[in-house]
């Protein structure tokens, strides 16, 4: 900006000097027009040389004005480039901010779902505690003692272990990228094990098998990159039947569909996830795309 201001001052000085000299020459032309021929004859070649020098002085500022204009044009072009670069940087910052907002919304959704699951587990624990207290009170009421054989103790231990069921897994064990799209529904195998209490989820097939009859809660989270025609979607299946879907498409930003359901399962029932036809899902080392399940209470 300092260079630009200096160029403007120089331009104004040159213009003022040119105007002043132009007015002086015009006045001399009007005053001495009748005497020009006589003065030329009297003074001879010396007077001619002085006139030529005055005309050369009048034209001295003309090239300087052109130089100033060229420098001003160069400065303006440089400022346009700087402005374009600044605009590009601002757009990139806005894009990163939108991506961070999407990630924050995803984390908030997951936190809400986890809080809901924790509250449900607290209710189940409270009910079990009440049942144990009732059973202990009944034993005390009859005044007897409980004598269990070794096989009965082992049976009780097995039942207790079977009721401890919880798993959570993400899609990719390593690397990053999209899975799909495929023309038909395809079973997703979540290979990165986060939790697998009871080992009832199989990371080689992607299938969970119910060990006891009871109510189970399943949660689906998925992330997908923006695309004009390819959506992001998955389907939860129980014994081959469609239960729920998590589906979204947005051509301008990352999508994060999610869903959850509680299911009454019999012993041996299977639950798994399939990729929606002609859709894809994304995952990386942050483990965005997950499949989780928990036994709420036996029936």
Mean pLDDT: 81
**Helix/strand class:** alpha+beta
Low-confidence stretches: 22-34, 36-41
Distance from first to last alpha carbon: 80 Å
Beta content comes to 15-25%
- Pattern of helices and strands: HHHHHEEEEEEEEEEEEE
| Rg of Cα set | 43 Å
Shape designation: elongated
Describe the sheet with the most strands: 6 strands, antiparallel
Keywords:
299 residues, 5 helices, 13 strands, elongated
Describe this structure in words.
- The protein is an alpha+beta fold.
- Helices cover 49% and strands 23% of the residues.
- The strands form three sheets. Strands 3, 5, 6, 8, 9 and 11 form a six-stranded antiparallel sheet that branches.
- A hairpin with a 2-residue loop joins strand 8 and strand 9 (241-248).
- Helix 1 (2-31) packs antiparallel against helix 4 (61-142).
- The radius of gyration is 43 Å and the shape is elongated.
- The two termini are 80 Å apart.
- Mean pLDDT is 81; it is low at 22-34 and 36-41.
Lay out the secondary structure.
Layout (H helix, E strand, L loop, with lengths): L1 H30 L4 H8 L1 H14 L2 H82 L7 H13 L3 E5 L6 E3 L6 E2 L4 E6 L3 E2 L4 E3 L4 E8 L10 E7 L2 E8 L9 E8 L4 E6 L5 E3 L6 E9 L1
Antiparallel strand pairs: 1-4, 1-13, 2-12, 3-11, 5-6, 6-11, 7-10, 7-13, 8-9, 8-11
Helix pairs in contact: 1-4
Could you write a compact summary of the structure shown?
With 299 residues, the chain is α+β, with helices and mostly antiparallel strands. The chain has helices at residues 2-31, 36-43, 45-58, 61-142, 150-162, and strands at 166-170, 177-179, 186-187, 192-197, 201-202, 207-209, 214-221, 232-238, 241-248, 258-265, 270-275, 281-283, 290-298. The longest helix has 82 residues, at 61-142.
């Amino acid at each position: 900006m300092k260079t630009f201001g200096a160029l403007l001052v120089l331009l104004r000085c040159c213009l003022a000097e040119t105007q002043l000299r132009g007015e002086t020459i015009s006045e001399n032309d009007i005053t001495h027009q009748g005497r020009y021929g006589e003065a030329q004859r009297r003074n001879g070649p010396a007077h001619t040389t002085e006139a030529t020098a005055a005309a050369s002085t009048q034209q001295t500022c003309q090239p300087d004005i052109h130089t100033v204009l060229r420098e001003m044009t160069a400065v303006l072009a440089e400022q346009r480039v700087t402005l374009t670069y600044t605009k590009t940087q601002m757009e990139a910052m806005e894009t990163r901010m939108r991506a961070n907002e999407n990630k924050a919304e995803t984390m908030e959704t997951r936190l809400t779902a986890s809080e809901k699951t924790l509250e449900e587990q607290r209710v189940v624990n409270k009910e079990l505690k009440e049942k144990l207290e009732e059973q202990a009170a009944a034993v005390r009421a009859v005044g007897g003692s409980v004598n269990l054989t070794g096989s009965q103790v082992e049976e009780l231990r097995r039942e207790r272990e079977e009721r401890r069921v919880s798993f959570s897994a993400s899609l990719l064990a390593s690397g990053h990228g999209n899975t799909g799209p495929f023309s038909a529904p395809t079973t997703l195998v979540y290979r990165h094990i986060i939790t697998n209490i009871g080992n009832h989820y199989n990371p080689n097939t992607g299938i969970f098998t119910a060990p006891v009859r009871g109510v189970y809660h399943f949660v689906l989270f998925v992330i997908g990159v923006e695309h004009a025609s390819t959506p992001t979607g998955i389907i939860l299946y129980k014994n081959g039947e469609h239960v729920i879907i998590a589906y979204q498409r947005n051509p301008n930003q990352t999508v994060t569909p999610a869903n959850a359901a509680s299911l009454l399962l019999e012993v041996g029932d299977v639950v798994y996830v399939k990729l929606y036809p002609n859709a894809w899902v994304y995952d990386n080392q942050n483990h965005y795309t997950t499949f989780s399940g928990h036994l709420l209470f036996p029936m």
